[in-house]
Amino acid sequence: MSQAAAAPSYGQSLLDRVLAGTPRGEDPLTHVAELPARESRFTQWPSWIHPDVVDAVRGNGIPLPWTHQEAAASLAASGSHVVVATGTASGKSLAYQLPVLTALAEDPRATALYLSPTKALGADQIRAAIALTEQAESLATVYPNAFDGDTAAEVRQWVRANSRWIFTNPDMLHIGMLRSHQRWSHFFRNLRYVVIDECHSYRGVFGSNVALVLRRLRRIAHRYAADPVFILASATTAAPGAAASRLIGADCKEVTVDGSPHGPRTVALWEPPLLAEVTGENGAPVRRAAGSEAARIMADLMVEGARTLTFVRSRRGAELTAMGTKRLLAESAPDLTERVAAYRAGYLAEDRRELEAALADGTLLGAATTNALELGVDIAGLDAVVVAGFPGTVASFWQQAGRSGRRGEGSLVVLVARDDPLDTYLVHHPAALLDKPVEATVTDPSNPYVLGPQLLCAAMELPLSHTEVEQFGAVELLTRLAEQGLIRRRAHGWFVTAESNPHAAVDIRGGIGTQVAIVDAESGRMLGTVDGGRAPATAHPGAVHLHQGESFVVDTLDLEEGLALVHAETPEWSTSARETTEIVVTSVLEHDDHGPVTVALTEVEVTHQVVGYLRRLPSGEVLDSVELDMPPQRLNTRAVMYTVTPELMERAGITADCFPGSLHAAEHAAIGLLPLVATCDRGDIGGVSTALHQDTGLPTVFVYDGHQGGAGFADRGHAELLRWLHATRDAIGSCECAAGCPSCVQSPKCGNGNDPLDKDGAVRLLGAVLDHLRGDR
């Protein structure tokens, strides 16, 4: 064996150091994969690029473009909408900078628009654009500038009058530019390109809203005789061209072959052990918290001198993980305690920039962060990334993992599983994470609860023609809105009424319905808002509310007034709501018969009520359950469902008294595993199971979208039912607990207190269902 083959990689050496610090008797490592390095593939500068742009890019240290950069840029320059979907740190920015800057250099009136989901990413891209435009006289009048909620009023006027490349977000485009498009007429008239960065983040209700905002943008541009080309940048996702086409409402070509280099990576999957001394609800075992485990791993890596970034799913978690790392370092390497910090949204911009610079130059050796550092912000030279809890999608996992190894050297990525069915499944089925195609982005712009308010916005911007309304399939929808006095139909189109104020009523980030303001009762300070539909579960009396590192407890919630009053308090526990749910089928959209098993995609009315909440310690231990009396909430949405006959369950070895627990456990686990096939979070969906449902007369399991009208998640689950339920069964079966725990069949928001649950019965039930589904396919 050669010396090169025998020597462990740098990432493996770091992993060995972390394993050496594992307590005796523990074996948390479930899988290790060595991902090979990838070589650069360069190409020549195309002749269509303006010479000044080539000189500026070369001046910024880029001698030649990678193949995917040139391919996407050339498609855009030829007039094709295009999405470039390649890995983290693959230089996707250059793919749109080349055509945009060339157009701006060749035509002194041309304009361009850049959209990003976060301000931090937009600010990063503005700096890059300024660095390029300052190097060429032909780009001197571009004036790249931000136009967002942080832009002062007097600066906004200057930007509107002078900037030819504006950097904003979909929220400001919706409410600050399209609503007052007449004031932007010169900008829209000359609009050549629209850049949509990190477009994979536009999914669910947020993505559906953004898709309709972009259709409104194209409509306004056409009003001013412009036809801009859309250039989209995405993480690696399944079918990026189809997803981008659905997002912008026009055919979009895709570039997916990555020509950028990266060093070898060691990817380790890590499952914290079950704790013998701590029990959860109904005495179920609890795992060591992913954040605590990640803090120990990061401390060990920092002792080895490895620059490390730890991704945590919440702001509070990021702060706690950084604090835990500091405590561990105080014992083993006190000189390193000042070289670790937390980074998250909510910090002042100058504080974020200082942390980014300290990470980049090595002053800061470790940071615990939310996904605020997942998108775009350029941080080089990281040796290791720790992911504390699967981030929800495979796309996000690879975005976070891609932060490591930017110097072309080896690196380590560790995924630490949370107490969650999906995390459990992935660490025991590594191919589902490391070998599977990344999820397809789910959006549904036809959702009437999203489409109606968006069409009101469009009609206020420019009256809707009868042809446009028919193209949207929205005649019946607008007729209902007309009956509410929000819009009027006239011989030459549809016009909003004076009573309508549609732009202010739309929360494109996903809230539908009245917003509830969260207010500090002592100071009167407004801390934020929550969607009225979710307020009973997240802002009920007694709920712990976190805001920019501060902790508050809710005193009162008034849904009619749209107000939740809170007081400052930092309890040692967190809270999670418990809800009861009833579901009624209102229509069947698709139905498949598999003998004793039937599968359907349905429209349903869900009635759910928050009946209490649990108080949990950071270890996962349940302190107590507090009862609440909250009003019921009704939701019209879409669900995927399956029924089984009692005879099939009995043949599978499930006795009648175990029907409810088996169905209940299978439903909980299926909710946890749906994000494997649809780009959603567990909080986006809900479920109901019953041994005898009134609409089917059979044992039935439902999983539904938690948004009015649906968000496309149930549809995706229906389309991928076989793979989804197979993964659900495997996740339950591979969990090492005896009778069910949060890693397999327990749900943190179960209104029945996770009782009854039958883990063995769920495995038997799902096996029987899968046998019949496979037999017919």
Kindly summarize this structure in a few lines.
Pfam families: DEAD, Helicase_C, MZB, WHD_HRQ1. This protein has 777 residues and is of the alpha/beta class. Helices cover 36% and strands 24% of the residues.
Word description of this protein:
The structure is a single chain. The protein is α/β, with parallel strands linked by helices and 777 residues long. It has 27 helices and 29 strands. The strands form 6 sheets. The protein has a 7-stranded mixed sheet, sandwiched between helices. A hairpin with a 2-residue loop joins strand 24 and strand 25. Helix 10 runs parallel beside helix 18 (448-461). The longest helix is centred in the N-terminal third of the chain and has 20 residues, at 204-223. 52% of the residues are buried.
- Rg for CA atoms: 27 Å
For the secondary structure, the number of strands is 29
Strand order of the largest sheet: 1-9-16-15-12-14-13
Q: Main sheet, how many strands, which sense, barrel? A: 7 strands, mixed
Features of the shown structure:
777 residues, alpha/beta, 7-stranded mixed beta sheet, 7-stranded parallel beta sheet, 24% strand, globular, disordered N terminus, Helicase_put_actinobac, DEAD/DEAH box helicase, helicase, ATP-binding, hydrolase
SSE inventory with pairings:
Layout: H1 3-6, H2 10-20, E1 29-35, H3 51-59, H4 67-77, E2 82-85, H5 92-106, E3 111-115, H6 119-133, E4 145-146, H7 153-162, E5 165-168, H8 170-178, H9 185-189, E6 191-196, H10 204-223, E7 229-234, H11 240-248, E8 253-255, E9 265-270, E10 274-279, E11 285-287, H12 290-303, E12 308-312, H13 315-332, E13 340-343, H14 349-361, E14 366-369, E15 384-388, H15 394-401, E16 411-416, H16 421-428, H17 431-434, H18 448-461, H19 466-472, H20 475-483, E17 487-490, E18 493-496, H21 502-505, E19 515-520, E20 526-531, H22 535-538, E21 544-547, E22 550-558, E23 563-568, E24 574-594, E25 597-616, E26 622-627, E27 633-644, H23 646-651, H24 659-673, E28 685-690, E29 700-705, H25 713-719, H26 721-734, H27 759-775
Parallel strand pairs: 2-7, 2-8, 3-5, 3-6, 4-5, 6-7, 9-16, 12-14, 12-15, 13-14, 15-16, 19-23
Antiparallel strand pairs: 1-9, 10-11, 17-18, 19-20, 21-22, 22-23, 24-25, 25-26, 25-27, 27-29, 28-29
Helix pairs in contact: 4-5, 8-10, 10-18, 12-13, 16-26, 24-26, 24-27, 26-27
Keywords: ATP-binding, Helicase, Hydrolase, Nucleotide-binding
Domain Helicase ATP-binding: 73-255
Protein name: DEAD/DEAH box helicase
